[in-house]
TrEMBL record:
The keyword Repressor does not apply. It comes from Kocuria soli. The lineage of its organism: Bacteria, Bacillati, Actinomycetota, Actinomycetes, Micrococcales. It is found in: Membrane. The chain crosses the membrane at residues 44-70, 82-105, 111-130, 142-163, 226-247, 317-343. InterPro entries: Phos_transporter. This is Inorganic phosphate transporter. It is a multi-pass membrane protein. GO terms for biological process: phosphate ion transmembrane transport.
Amino acid sequence: MIGVTLLLVVLALILTVGYALVNSFHDVPNASAIPVRHRALTPRAALILAAVLNAVGVAAAAIMLPLAELELILVESIDPEPALAVIICALLTTIGWDLLTWWWGMPSSSSAAFAGASLGATIALGWVGLSSNLPKAFETFAHLIVPVLLAPAIAFVIAWLLVIPSVRGLRHVEADQVRLLARVGMVVGSTGTNVGHGLFHGQRVVLLLITIPAVGGLTAAPMSSAIPWAALVTALAFAAGSLMGAWRIAQTVSTRMVGTDALRGGVAQGVSGVLLFVGGVTSGVSLSTSQTTAAAVFGAGTNQKYRSTNHRLVGKVLLCWLVTPVVCAVTSGTLVLAASPFLG
């Protein structure tokens, strides 16, 4: 069984790097869509900025990692193969869902996808008698999913409210100066969004890279000495994924969902950037960069005299947010059940 375990470890590590690439590719519009739309950044500059700042966020995550209390492995299995199967199935499901929602142009949450996939795989493993301690799995799922639900609501409300003093405070300022100030706000907000993404998702990927060999019995435990190489691999993967740029999702966020002028775009990007950066530095739970940013854009865009909301598309986006953890849980659980005869 050592050969099987080693194979599963290698597959899990490859999928972890693949997840980092796809995740950063999928989420880069959160920081680039609005600044590019309003010419605060060129597309090339936005992607380079995202690559660099995501790497910075990963480095910060690696420094903070020894202080974090995150439960990554959601099961306590009687054998390493089932535990590795949970990770592999969760990663396969999350990667697949990210690619599918990119094709649809939907700004969905990778955090919700990974949490749902992990929970579904854990429950499926319990059904076939290969794991226990399901309450721990539910607790970890709640630890991840609550911010995914709350952050969009908070971002929407704050962005909607901030438009009011912003419009009133700048009503006597010339339009060119307003656009300039808004573009500065977009760049600052984009910076916070990129760093926050690197913090949130980089921490998860680094944890996976140092935990998978330990689960497979190749190391005694996830050692702090492994963090530097894991962070380096993660930073390179995030930077490479960011440079690819998921422009399908960028079009949804910047123009198709709701129309924003430069001022409202600056408010939206600033709100999401502050929430994600502050959350990444102060919180031990993962916020959704996609849902936080999209909700902020929607909040700022709806607070204007002339309505330009595509209600049908917004409904599809909200539906996608709701079904993401459910679909991923069912898919990942099904994969585990299919593989269970080989795990006992």
